[in-house]
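Section 4.2 – Deliverable D4.2 (structural model, holo form)

The reporting period included a commitment to supply a predicted holo structure for the target in complex with pyridoxal-5'-phosphate. Inputs used:
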Amino acid sequence: MSSALLHTPDRQHSDSIKWQRYAGRDILPMWVADMDFAAPAEVVEALQARIAQGMFGYTEPSASLHEAIVDGIARDHGWQIEPDWIVFLPGVVSGFNLACRLAGTPGDSVLTFPPIYPPVLTAPRNQERRLLRSELVLAGGHWEYDWEGLDTLLATQRAREVVICNPHNPVGRVWSRDELTRLAWYAEKHDWLICSDDIHCGLVLDPTRPYTPIAALDESIAQRTITLMAPSKTWNIPALGCAFAVIPNASLRKQYVAAGHGLTPEVNLLGLVACEAAYRHGDAWRQALLARLRENAQRLHACVNALDGLSMTPVEATYLAWVDCRALGLAQPQKYFEQHGLGFSDGRDFGMEGFVRINFACGPELLDEALRRLDLAVRAA
Ligand SMILES: Cc1ncc(COP(=O)(O)O)c(C=O)c1O
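Output (structure tokens):
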């Protein structure tokens, strides 16, 4: 796939929190989940054309945007949704916070599976719910749900809702149909509302691990599920603030919209424009991106697993690697690597000690330098 579509501009002056954190210091920014690639030309051109009109009055998502999303999800993920199932949101984080408001009544519990994207861990408390944790386990060379541990937890605790992440940030799993079916069985048995954060679903790297939305398993699961999606991760436009929930159940959808009344702002016009262009015209760019990410993932995987004291599992999806540093015996792995010129995310924020998360969505030169520094840092530990 042509990498001519993928540009890696200098991000030093692009108002980027990823790059500003280490401005003026020789530390490679490989933390927050955005990419060092410019957005697809088709998205930029659509934004330019809309800006040229000079009109920015109140607006609402058009029928054409709904159609672009419905077609895009059918084309890319084989899931046929209806336009009126879509609820636009300013972000996926707002989306799962709103979903927590529908989990029973204040004081009730929301189950999730650490290590996980940090705002998932704080959402229940934000919405006066309790967090129930069932940690993922490393078994047979990949991360899995701990079914036995889940049974033990559920013997004494009652959850009203489960929040999953599919594909999962940070462990990079694309949950299989079997795993989702088993989870869905629990949801039916315990009458859970399901909130599935599928923001990374356009970033599957391993073609043998196709992504299935849990709501696509069957009609009864669809009726209890809120699926959160966005163009933001796949096409690198997170600051444009456009996401959406897909909610097939009309009464659940009504409750969800009502939970955000007066609080959830309308999506920014430019976010809507970018979203439509991405779903309609962004696939060639996405394929070029996936080729680059696959190569980066393989290089990082080989390097990490060749170093004594570090290990990682294959990244099935996302541009994030969850690296096990426990064998190095470092008190604070993130700080240690930062002192060696590598700016990773701290695993503790995701609810697990002894890990760092590496964002490898960068050009090959930056990755070369990161691998060189990683080697030196591990040898010096
Ligand atoms: C799993 C997951 N959900 C949500 C988000 C952020 O979503 P948004 O910026 O739309 O709130 C991220 C960003 O890294 C993420 O990894």
